[in-house]
Specification:
By secondary structure, this protein is of the alpha+beta class. Helices cover 31% and strands 14% of the residues. The radius of gyration is 17 Å and the shape is globular. It binds zinc ion (ZN). The site of zinc ion (ZN) has 6 residues, from helix 2.
């Protein structure tokens, strides 16, 4: 990131500059409907390479992927491959692997970033705050005291796409 005339020197608050949130605000990557053929990003991601899709790990029924619009660095999501909206509709094998991948996410984040705490859970339904309600996803958000995060580890001055790629690699390497 460049020092800007009149704006002072770069400091640790640089990480609060999050241009990626603009894409979210503009509603990019939002499905047009509720069916699997309606542009659901969670159906498209597994067809990409790990690097392109920011996939950290693939299981038999679920996968773990970096959130493109993170609440915090290292914000992961565990997503069933099957296009399903309701947790109550998950099949036993999916339930088990969703739980295992959530555990592995905690492990990888602790190992790679020294995360001190986590917010884990899912928003079911649009009224509950789900960004993509048609396809359920479990959020795993790492937390640190004061929420200093591991951007400094991978370089706080990198632009976001590179940062996400580096973060994905770190977590994929730390995945058990
Ligand atoms: Zn879907």
């Amino acid at each position: 990131m460049h020092a800007q005339a009149g704006a002072g020197g770069p400091d640790n608050f640089e990480r609060l500059w999050t241009p990626h949130r603009m894409a979210y605000i503009k509603g990019e990557n939002k499905p047009t409907g509720t069916g699997p053929g309606d542009g659901c990003p969670f159906d498209a991601i597994p067809k990409m390479s790990d690097e392109e899709g920011l996939i950290v790990a693939r299981g038999d029924t679920v996968y773990a992927v970096l959130n493109l619009y993170p609440y915090n660095s290292g914000h992961l999501m565990v997503v069933p491959y099957r296009h399903v909206a309701d947790y109550a509709e998950l099949q036993p094998a999916e339930l088990v692997e969703l739980g295992q991948f959530t555990q592995k996410s905690l492990g990888a984040l602790r190992k790679a970033s020294g995360a001190q705490g986590f917010n884990v859970g899912m928003n079911l339904g649009q009224v509950a705050g789900a960004g993509i309600a048609a396809h359920l996803h479990q959020h795993v958000v790492p937390r640190w005291g004061g929420d200093t995060n591991f951007m400094p580890v991978v370089g706080q001055t990198k632009v976001l796409p590179q940062l996400l790629r580096d973060t994905r690699q770190l977590l994929a390497d730390a995945w058990d």
